[in-house]
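Inverse folding, one chain.
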């Protein structure tokens, strides 16, 4: 990185506050001279604690797009972290505007101090809007090797990516690159930030619109056309935390729904008038949910065994339902008859990469090269032979940052792991029709068709932070019309009322609020955490989805709070949804929306004919 003045670690915090405040005050003059977003501060912290800072000019790549690049040769082994701070990435308490991070968290400038760090970045982007302008930063090189930092010191806000060079362990595999997009006019807001990222993803061919992918793929078209109903068959009650299970100490499977129960549920759904549904058999496999992965077969006898599972699949087909199953590639258990220690990912110190004790015992993260090369083809052939067809669900994969493997027999950096995850997803799409997974992390955007939930803040993923004001559909503006999704963990089972203290729906409160959130964020209805004894709420969701489902093929173009507690979402075909969380009726374009109600406003004639918005 060259010889630069060094700072002592003990002086950095005060110096940092002074520097960021100076940047904030200097921005208006810089903007007048046409110099905004043309320089960035590069802050390098060495392993020994020394810190260097320098201003680096940005390369103009296109109109209002400026690039910061650090080549591989300058990313040396003695570096701990590298911070990249755009001149536009600073604001002062009391200013109008906000910062956003890729989890969809938005915060206004109202605190004197605080800090937010996001290591799990569903998209490699971050942004800020101030009175001086707006920008979005897109990390295009080493995009899995950074965390997003929002620092507030003495009322000065700064947002930046911190690249975790030491944590890579491997030598860097590509240049460090951040592109700063200056946003103007109607793009100078969080909707414009997400649209800029969507344009980047489409422009480089990383993703293809859903409208194009369903051509010649009736299974994926079916997925978009209806709701997703997951039925969990059962799980071992490993209350004693048996770490390494054997036939003599393995806990028995506790049954929730047999395959006969599954057939009854499907028949009852059909009798209610639900003509189309995508059913998912969860925990059908040997040992039940999270029971003996990577072993899948045979279907567990506690639920009825393979013969009954085949009968249930055939039943779904007769009813006109699409049926898929749930598997997991990130949990390997020693109880499995396929367990091979050589397939487990290693940590830098050579130890096995393990995580929690789950139903199947101690879970180990496998190397994804070994998953792709050694397991998936055999698994998919067996699942296809059973008759599963639709958007195949793989747990966890899209919910985590891709992890490296330091096993010398099959080492992988994070990018290589992501590549193998996508290969598995594409195999699922070719075999079954689609690939769905748990979360929104877009290292698998190339192969992903459906996300079970985009956000689980703050109960399931993330912790409450006083810097945050609200959640926005940043991910949905980038990916709606490309990847199907349910917006929140809390909108699963959104039409059901529950007294279960654990239930994720409690975070959003009433059924009415959960309905509004599903509509506001353009979601596909999902059901999972219930007994399926009362199916009428599912029929309600099915009916509510019918007039909205065509929007799944449209890009979400913008989202805004147009009055207090009133949110407008617009789509590429000119359709709009208005969600009124207030206690008063709201009138929009001649439509009255009741308190805690919503409305779909269809495109105007002028918009349909000429693309002109408005009445």
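Residues assigned per position:
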């Amino acid at each position: 990185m060259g010889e630069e003045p060094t700072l002592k670690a003990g002086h950095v915090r005060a110096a940092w506050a002074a520097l960021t405040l100076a940047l904030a005050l200097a921005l208006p003059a810089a903007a007048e001279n046409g110099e905004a977003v043309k320089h960035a501060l590069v802050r390098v912290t060495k392993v020994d604690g020394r810190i260097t800072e320098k201003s680096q000019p940005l390369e103009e790549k296109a109109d209002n797009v400026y690039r910061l690049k650090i080549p591989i040769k300058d990313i040396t082994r003695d570096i701990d972290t590298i911070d990249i701070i755009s001149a536009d990435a600073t604001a002062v308490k009391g200013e109008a505007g906000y910062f956003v991070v890729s989890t969809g968290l938005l915060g206004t400038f109202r605190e004197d101090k605080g800090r937010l760090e996001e290591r799990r970045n569903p998209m490699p982007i971050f942004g800020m809007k101030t009175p001086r302008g707006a920008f979005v930063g897109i990390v295009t090189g080493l995009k899995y090797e950074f965390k997003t930092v929002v620092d507030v010191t003495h009322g000065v806000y700064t947002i930046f990516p911190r690249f975790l060079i030491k944590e890579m362990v491997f030598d860097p595999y590509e240049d460090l690159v951040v592109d700063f997009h200056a946003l103007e006019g109607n793009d100078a807001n969080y909707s414009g930030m997400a649209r800029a990222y969507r344009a980047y993803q489409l422009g480089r061919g990383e993703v293809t619109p859903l409208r194009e992918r369903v051509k010649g793929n009736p299974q994926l078209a079916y997925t978009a056309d209806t709701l997703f109903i997951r039925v969990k068959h059962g799980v071992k009650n490993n209350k004693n935390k048996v770490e390494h299970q054997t036939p003599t100490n393995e806990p028995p499977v506790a049954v929730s729904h047999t395959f006969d129960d599954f057939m009854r549920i499907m028949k009852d759904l059909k009798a209610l008038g639900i003509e189309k549904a995508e059913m998912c058999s969860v925990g059908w496999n040997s040992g039940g949910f999270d029971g003996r992965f990577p072993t899948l077969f045979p279907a567990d006898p506690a639920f009825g065994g393979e013969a009954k599972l085949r009968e249930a699949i055939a039943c779904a087909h007769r009813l006109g339902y699409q049926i898929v199953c749930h598997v997991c590639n990130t949990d390997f258990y020693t109880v499995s008859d396929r367990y091979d220690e050589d397939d487990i990912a290693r940590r830098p110190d050579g130890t096995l990469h393990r995580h929690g004790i789950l139903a199947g015992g101690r879970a180990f993260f496998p190397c994804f090269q070994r998953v792709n090369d050694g397991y998936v083809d055999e698994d998919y052939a067996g699942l296809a032979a059973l008759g599963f067809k639709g958007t195949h669900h793989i747990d966890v994969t899209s919910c985590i940052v891709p992890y490296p493997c330091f096993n010398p027999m099959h080492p992988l950096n994070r990018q290589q792991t992501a590549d193998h995850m996508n290969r598995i997803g594409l195999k699922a799409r070719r075999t079954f029709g689609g690939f769905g997974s748990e979360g929104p992390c877009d290292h698998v955007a190339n192969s992903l068709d459906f996300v079970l939930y985009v956000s689980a803040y703050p109960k399931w993923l993330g912790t409450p932070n006083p810097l945050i004001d609200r959640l926005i559909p940043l991910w949905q503006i980038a990916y709606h019309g490309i990847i199907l999704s349910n917006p929140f963990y809390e909108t699963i089972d959104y039409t059901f009322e529950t007294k279960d203290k654990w239930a994720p729906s409690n975070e959003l409160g009433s059924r009415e609020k959960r309905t509004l959130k599903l509509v506001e964020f353009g979601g596909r209805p999902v059901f999972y955490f219930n007994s399926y004894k009362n199916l009428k709420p599912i029929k309600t969701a099915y009916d509510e989805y019918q007039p909205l489902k065509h929007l799944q093929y449209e890009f979400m173009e913008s989202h805004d709070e147009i009055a207090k507690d009133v949110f407008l979402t617009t789509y590429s075909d000119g359709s709009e949804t208005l969600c009124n969380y207030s206690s008063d009726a709201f009138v929009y374009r001649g439509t009255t929306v009741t308190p805690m109600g919503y409305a779909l406003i269809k495109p105007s004639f002028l918009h349909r004919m000429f693309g002109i918005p408005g009445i």
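DSSP finds 14 helices and 34 strands in the chain. The two ends are 57 Å apart (CA to CA).
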